[in-house]
Amino acid sequence: MKITRFNRKRDLIIINALVWSPRSRRRLRLAIDTGSSDTVVTPDLVQELGYSVRDGERIMTIRSAIGKEQGFTLYVKRFSALGFVASNYLVHVFDLATGNDLDGLVGLSFLKQFNCECRFPAGRLRVERAAMDVR
Predict the structure, then answer these.
(1) Does a structural domain hold residue 53?
(2) 99 lies in which domain range?
(3) What is the pLDDT of residues 109-126, one digit of tens each?
């Protein structure tokens, strides 16, 4: 079991994460978002890591609270959050209307691998890998 701390006074649960490209790695600040089916990072971040839309898997359009957004999907070399690492991990690359303090969202594509318990008064997330039912 892994414990991740967050600032319980904020309106969002913000965690630190890491992402790797073939050339570098970068620390991220991501919001936990159980309303997002996918993990999302910003275009500025992937450009900083040396990726471009040409490295992407496919172009996509999503509808969000701020309207239609065009972006793409991309496999990053490694992704680490909540004390766990995923290799060759698919992220969605879209602009977010979150301001400058966030690099993206951790969505269900990552979270559904785990049992998560949020202890708001303590500002802690308890996370353990889930036993997956393969039926």
Answers:
(1) yes
(2) 2-129
(3) 999 999 999 999 999 999
